[in-house]
Structures are given as C-alpha cells and as structure tokens.
Amino acid sequence: MRKFTILWLLIIITITSWAGGGWPQPKGKGYFKLSQNWIISPFFYNPNGNVIDITTTSIYTTSMYAEYGFTNRLTGIAYLPFFVRATLNQVQYNQTGQFFPGDDYQSFGDTDIGLKYGLLVNKPFVVSATILLGLPLGSTAGGSSKILQTGDGEFNQQIRIDVSHSFYPKPVYASAYVGFNNRTNGFSDEFRYGAEVGLTLKKFIPILKLNVVKSLFNGDGTAIQNGIFNNNTEYFSPTLELNYQATEKWGLSGSGGFAFGARNILAAPNWSLGVYLKW
User: Fold this and answer.
1) Strands of 136-189, DSSP E
2) S-S: 33 plus which of 65, 83, 156, 181, CB 3.0-4.6 Å?
3) Is the pLDDT of residue 77 over 50?
4) pLDDT tens, 1-41?
C-alpha cells in the first residue's frame, strides 16, 4: 500500500509539472518556465469568421510562467510577459508606387496573477478552482502609427474549474476545464473551456490541448480593434506540445497552436519554445 501511494504521488507530481490541470503544486514545490512565443500573419479572421488579407503583422513575446505551492492545496500562479514586440510590415501599392513604412514597438505586456485551490485532492479525480487577474500593464497605442499593441488595456478577472484524472499505472492523464472571464473597459465577457491529454514516454511527454473561447458580445463597442488584442475574439484552438525531460529538474518544451472557426484574431499558428525547471 505504501509503495502504491509513493508511486501515485510521483506520477501526480510529474503530471502537475507538465499540465497543471486540477493538480495544485505540493507545498514548497514549484514549476518555472521561460518561453518565447511568436505569431506572424498576413491573414486575419474578420468579425464574420472569414479569412482576409492584411498587412503582415507579427507579435513576439518573451515570458516567464511560475507556479508555487504555498500549501498542499493552495498554489500561486504568475505569468509575466516581460518583453513583447509588435511589428507591422512596410507596404507598397504597385499602381501608385506609394510606400507606407513599417512600424514596430516593444514594451512590457499584460500580466496574469492568480491562485489555484484544490477542492478535491489525492483522489483518482482531482478538482481545483482558480482565479486569475489580468493586469493591463501593456501598451495599447505604440509605435509611430500608434496602433501597435502589447496589451488590451482592460483589467479582467477569470474564474475556472479544472477536473483531472490519472490513468495510472498507464502513463496517461486527462484534464478538462470550464471558465468565465469578466472583462472591463468595454470588452465583452468570455466563456472558456478546454481539455488536454498527456502521455509520459520516458523523457518525452507529448500533450494535446484544446482551448475554446466564446464571446458573450455584451461589450459597449468602444473597445480597441487593432488586430492583435481585439474585442469579441473567438476561436477553437488545438495545440500540440512536446516536452523533453533532460534531467530530473530541467526540460525543454515546444508547441504549435492553431485557430479554427475564429473571429477577430490573426489567422496564423502560435509557435512557442521554452525551458522549464521543476523542484
């Protein structure tokens, strides 16, 4: 019985390092990740969900993500995009020969801080509740054009419930979540849900994730509509992530996320590379 308990705790800790999900971090344990994300797109999902041509727009985000277990049930969460660079390509109109110069802007980005509390822990099914506060630390009017953004300028509060299950002794886990995101400054509130499945293959841990965002379209219509941090954004986004556990504590991570059935969002993959530490 003791051996089973130890093995169960080990797989729970391993799963927590990859996915979070319903598992809070154990007391004194944590997870830290340094990532580089980028999106480069000459296409855009308009409000009707149609893909249209736009001037190539890019956003590059260098960020830190951390989780720390204050107790065995309470985990602190922080997402800090400390360097965000948005760019707009130069445009030439062939008939007139007129040039519109490109533009770029870099600054701090919008930051998330939160707490996760384990409602049901140390069970085959675990359940947690999370509250995330989105701090509008980015810029909404950057560059010479004053249209480049590193944030949306609104303070949001997201509440979500996660349910997770380990299929031990098989090295597989599954998680699902549902959440509500209250947005301010004229932005519409959002309903969010998703799921993920992960598999531990010695040093390789592939994870398939699905995230869905649905707008309630209850904003006042004055929110910024500049192409990257839009109001009334919707999408159905599968993401494939691959982690490589180089040592007991360190690892590498890469992912590619894609948006389908989307509105008011760039029509291009979101790529990410990162390095993580767990203890």
Assistant:
1) 156-166, 172-182
2) 65
3) yes
4) 433 333 333 333 334 444 468 999 999 999 999 999 999 99
